[in-house]
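stage 2 :: seqdesign
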C-alpha cells in the first residue's frame, strides 16, 4: 500500500493544484462523459490510460471479464451503470472492451480452477455462449493461446448482444441515438482492435481509416405502417433522469 499512499499525497499536493480549475469546472458544470466503457477489471487494462482520457471524459464500469449480464437476468451494477449513462447522462457511445491474457477467459476454459470461486464461476456463465462459439465454430486443432484469444474476442461480441437486451440501449438504438463499439486491447503491444459490425470481425484501429464500429446509429422502427413517423422526444423518464444527473 505504501506506493498507493504516496500516490495520494502526490496527487493532493502536486497534481491537484495544477488541475484545480478543471475540477472546479467539473463540479460547476457536472459530468458530460463522451462514452460509457465496460471493461475488464484487470489492473493492466485501464480505459482512461488507453484512451488518454481525463476526469469527466469517460463513464467507466469494470468487472471480471467485461461482462454485460442480459437485462432480464441480473439487477446489479452493470445494469444500473448502463441505464444511468444512457438515460441520465445522455451518453451516445457504449464500448465493451476485452483484452489479451484475460484471467476470466482462462477461468472459462478451465472450470476446475474455479471450484473454490463459486461467484466467479456463476458470473462467467454470462460468457458461456462465447465458449460454445469457439468450441463449435472454430477449428478443433487450434493451439491453446489462439483459442484463448478467440474466446476473449468472441466474448466481446456476446456481451454486445447482451447489451442490446437492456431497454435503454434497445430504445436508444431504435432512435438512432446510440453507437456500439467492441474493443480488444493487446496488453503486450498496446494495440487496439475494434469490432466491425458490417464485416463481423475485429480490425486494427487505424486513425486514418476511422474506427470500425459494432453498430452505427440507424433509427428504425419495425412497424411498417409507422416507419415514417418522426421519433418522439426523449420522454418523461429520461428527462427526469437527466434532472437527477444535473442535481
Ligand atoms: Zn480480463
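stage 2 :: out
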Amino acid at each position: 500500500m505504501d506506493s498507493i499512499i504516496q500516490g495520494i499525497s502526490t496527487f493532493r499536493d502536486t497534481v491537484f493544484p495544477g488541475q484545480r480549475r478543471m475540477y472546479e469546472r467539473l463540479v460547476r458544470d457536472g459530468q458530460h462523459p463522451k462514452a460509457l466503457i465496460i471493461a475488464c477489471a484487470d489492473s493492466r487494462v485501464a480505459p482512461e490510460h488507453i484512451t488518454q482520457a481525463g476526469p469527466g471524459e469517460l463513464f467507466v464500469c469494470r468487472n471480471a471479464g467485461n461482462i454485460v449480464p442480459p437485462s432480464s437476468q441480473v439487477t446489479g451494477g452493470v445494469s444500473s451503470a448502463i441505464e444511468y449513462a444512457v438515460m441520465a447522462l445522455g451518453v451516445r457511445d457504449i464500448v465493451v472492451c476485452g483484452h489479451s491474457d484475460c484471467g476470466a477467459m482462462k477461468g472459462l476454459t478451465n472450470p476446475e480452477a474455479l471450484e473454490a470461486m463459486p461467484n466467479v464461476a456463476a458470473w462467467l456463465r454470462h460468457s458461456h455462449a462465447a465458449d460454445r462459439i469457439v468450441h463449435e465454430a472454430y477449428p478443433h486443432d487450434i493451439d491453446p493461446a489462439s483459442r484463448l484469444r478467440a474466446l476473449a474476442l468472441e466474448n466481446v461480441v456476446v456481451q454486445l448482444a447482451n447489451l442490446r437486451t437492456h431497454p435503454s440501449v434497445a430504445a436508444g438504438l431504435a432512435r438512432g441515438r446510440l453507437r456500439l463499439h467492441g474493443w480488444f486491447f493487446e496488453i503486450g503491444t498496446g494495440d487496439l482492435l475494434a469490432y466491425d459490425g458490417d464485416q463481423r470481425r475485429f480490425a486494427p484501429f487505424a486513425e486514418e481509416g476511422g474506427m470500425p464500429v459494432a453498430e452505427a446509429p440507424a433509427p428504425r422502427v419495425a412497424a411498417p405502417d409507422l416507419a415514417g413517423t418522426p421519433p418522439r422526444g426523449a420522454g418523461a423518464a429520461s428527462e427526469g433522469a437527466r434532472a437527477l444527473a444535473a442535481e
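stage 3 :: structure notes
- The CA atoms of residues 100 and 187 lie 6 Å apart.
- Residues 40, 42, 65, 99, 102-104 surround zinc ion (CB under 6 Å).
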